[in-house]
Automatic annotation (TrEMBL):
Pfam families, alphabetized: RIO1
High-level lineage: Bacteria, Bacillati, Actinomycetota, Actinomycetes, Pseudonocardiales
E.C. code: 2.7.11.1
Protein name per Swiss-Prot or TrEMBL: non-specific serine/threonine protein kinase
SMART domains according to UniProt: RIO
Domain of life per record: Bacteria
Organism: Pseudonocardia oceani
C-alpha cells in the first residue's frame, strides 16, 4: 500500500522576521573590542588626537611648554567663558605615557547656525577678501558668509596675537589656528584655575598704580604698531599672579583689533578704549599724578601716527 506524503509547505515569512544567516553563523567580533564600541580611529584616551598637524602655528621661538608631538591627545576639561561670538574652554594636550602635557585655552568661534556677530561693520572696514563671491556673501550675511566671518574673526585674532606676542606686548601666546578654532596660552594656575579679569580685582593703591603702568605700556605697544584693541574694558584684561604674587597684566579678546590710521573710525575706537578702561582706574582711586586717561589718549594717538585725527570724546 503506497503512502502519500503531503508536500511540505514553506512557512510564510513576515516583514518583521529576522533574516536567517546562510552558511556558517557569523561571529560577533564586537565582544573582542576592548574599547567597547569607541571610534577605531580615535585615541585610546582623551577626546581627539592632537590637531597640531595641518594647523597654522604660532610664531617662533616657541615657548618650551608647547606640545608639538603628533602622538599627543587633546582632552576638553570644561568651559571657561561663553560669549556671543565664541566660547572659551580649557583643553589639555598630552603625550600618553610621558610627562609631556600643557594646558591651553581653546576658543571656538560660532558659525552660521549660531548667533550672529554683533560688531562686524565698524571693525571690518579696511578688511577685504580676494574673491567677490565671498565679499558678497559676507555683506549679505548668508550662511556661507557667516561661516566666512567666523573664520575671519579667528584668523584675525590669531594674526594679531602672533604679531603682538612677537613684539613683546602682553598677550597670550597663540599656539595654533584651525578654521574657527584657536588654541592659545592658558593664563592661570597649573591646576586649571583661570586668572581673574581686572573687573574682579580689588587692588590696593600700590598694585593699582603698578597695573596702570603695565596697561599704559601695553597700549603704547599696540599704538606704535598703529593698532587699538577696539573693545577694551576691565573684562578683557587678565591679572595673573605668579609665584612671587606680583600681578601681571595680560590683554585678551583681540579679534576686532583696529588699525587706527586706515580704519576711518580707528581714532574713535581708540578713544572709547581709553575712556572705558580709564573710568575703571579712576573709580578705584588712581592718583592723578600717576596717570590720567585724558592725557593718555593724545599720547597714544601720537604713537599711532593719528594725532591729527583725534576725536572728541
Amino acid at each position: 500500500m503506497s503512502q502519500h506524503h503531503e508536500p511540505l509547505r514553506k512557512r510564510r515569512r513576515f516583514d518583521d522576521d529576522e533574516p536567517r544567516p546562510r552558511g556558517r553563523a557569523r561571529i560577533d567580533l564586537s565582544a573582542l573590542d576592548e574599547r567597547g564600541g569607541a571610534d577605531p580611529d580615535g585615541p585610546p584616551e582623551g577626546d581627539r588626537w592632537s590637531t597640531w598637524d595641518g594647523a597654522d602655528h604660532g610664531p617662533a621661538p616657541r615657548p618650551d611648554w608647547v606640545v608639538t608631538d603628533h602622538a599627543a591627545v587633546d582632552t576638553d576639561l570644561g568651559a571657561l567663558k561663553s560669549g556671543k561670538e565664541a566660547d572659551v574652554g580649557l583643553l589639555e594636550r598630552a603625550v600618553p605615557g610621558t610627562d609631556r602635557r600643557a594646558l591651553m585655552a581653546v576658543k571656538r568661534y560660532r558659525t552660521a547656525e549660531h548667533r550672529m556677530f554683533h560688531r562686524d561693520a565698524g571693525y571690518l572696514e579696511g578688511r577685504r577678501v580676494r574673491r567677490s563671491r565671498e565679499t558678497r556673501a559676507m555683506a549679505h550675511r548668508t550662511a556661507f558668509g557667516r561661516d566666512l566671518l567666523a573664520g575671519q574673526w579667528a584668523g584675525a585674532e590669531f594674526a594679531a596675537l602672533s604679531r603682538l606676542w612677537s613684539d613683546g606686548v602682553p598677550v597670550p601666546y597663540p599656539v595654533q589656528c584651525t578654521g574657527t578654532e584657536l588654541l592659545m596660552e592658558f593664563v592661570g594656575d597649573a591646576d586649571g584655575t583661570a586668572a581673574p579679569r581686572l573687573a574682579q580685582c580689588r587692588p590696593d593703591r600700590d598694585e593699582l598704580c603698578d597695573l596702570w603702568h603695565q596697561l599704559v605700556d601695553a597700549l603704547l605697544g599696540l599704538a606704535r604698531r598703529g593698532l587699538a584693541h577696539g573693545d577694551l574694558s576691565a573684562y578683557n584684561v587678565l591679572v595673573h599672579r605668579g609665584p612671587d604674587r606680583s600681578p601681571r597684566l595680560v590683554l585678551i579678546d583681540l579679534p576686532q583689533v583696529v588699525d587706527v590710521v586706515t580704519n576711518p573710525r580707528g581714532p574713535e575706537f581708540l578713544a572709547r578704549d581709553v575712556a572705558r578702561i580709564g573710568e575703571w582706574f579712576t573709580a578705584r582711586g588712581l592718583p592723578p599724578e600717576v596717570g590720567q586717561p585724558g592725557t593718555l589718549l593724545p599720547e597714544l594717538l601720537v604713537a599711532a601716527g593719528a594725532a591729527t585725527s583725534q576725536p572728541e570724546w
